[in-house]
Design a protein that fits this description.
Layout lengths: L4 H6 L14 H18 L4 H26 L13 E2 L7 E2 L2 H20 L8 H17 L18 H19 L4 H5 L1
Protein name: Prolipoprotein diacylglyceryl transferase
Family: Belongs to the Lgt family.
Keywords: Cell membrane, Lipoprotein, Membrane, Transferase, Transmembrane, Transmembrane helix
């Protein structure tokens, strides 16, 4: 939806046609959060407790998701002359950054190890979620500079991809959550 809003506004049922591909991390995150929030609130459980539990292992999904992107030859990087640059079938004869593998290592492996270590200490509910949003959002924002954007994607301000814009929202949300964790707001509403 985020990358082709005009199409999906004209064809809203296509949003749920997941068998056709085209899914993005950000759309999956928003859908999962909304579904989880509704279920958790209906069952009178703590949304932030569950979110903290889930984000510790979320990088495992990111790891395997990026491996899948690499195997499929999608979401490849910009041209590169580095010795580990790879020629992707859909990317033409030019060697490119294997951005999927960079993301696999940093947003998958590193972020998992970092989040896993956070579980050793008691934190206010929502802290791990906030840290995940900030760290993943920052790493993904930076990797977008190396990724070859699809020609159909519009750039914000002439340089920022939709992925980067959505990552900024994640980062800001994480920072705001950390701020509100100090307040009674969390206990009252989340």
């Amino acid at each position: 939806f985020f990358y082709y809003p005009d199409y999906f506004l004209k064809n809203p049922l296509e949003i749920i046609a997941i068998w056709k591909g085209g899914m993005s991390f950000h759309g999956g995150l928003i859908g999962s959060v909304l579904a989880g929030y509704i279920y958790i609130k209906k069952n009178r459980q703590s949304f932030l407790w569950w979110a903290d539990l889930i984000v510790v292992t979320a990088p495992i999904g990111l790891f395997f998701g990026r491996i899948g992107n690499f195997i499929n030859g999608e979401l490849y990087g910009k041209p590169s002359n580095l010795p580990w640059a790879i020629i992707f079938p859909e990317g033409g004869p030019i060697p490119r950054h294997p951005v999927q593998l960079y993301e696999c290592l940093l947003t998958g492996l590193f972020l998992f190890l970092f989040m896993w270590n956070l579980r050793k200490k008691e934190w206010p509910y929502g802290t791990k979620l906030a840290i995940f949003l900030i760290l993943y959002g920052t790493l993904r924002f930076l990797f977008e500079f190396l990724r070859e954007p699809a020609q159909s994607f519009n750039l914000f301000l002439g340089w920022m991809t939709m992925g980067q814009f959505l990552c900024l929202i994640m980062i800001i949300s994480g920072i705001l959550l950390l701020y509100f964790l100090r307040k009674d707001f969390i206990k009252k509403y989340l």
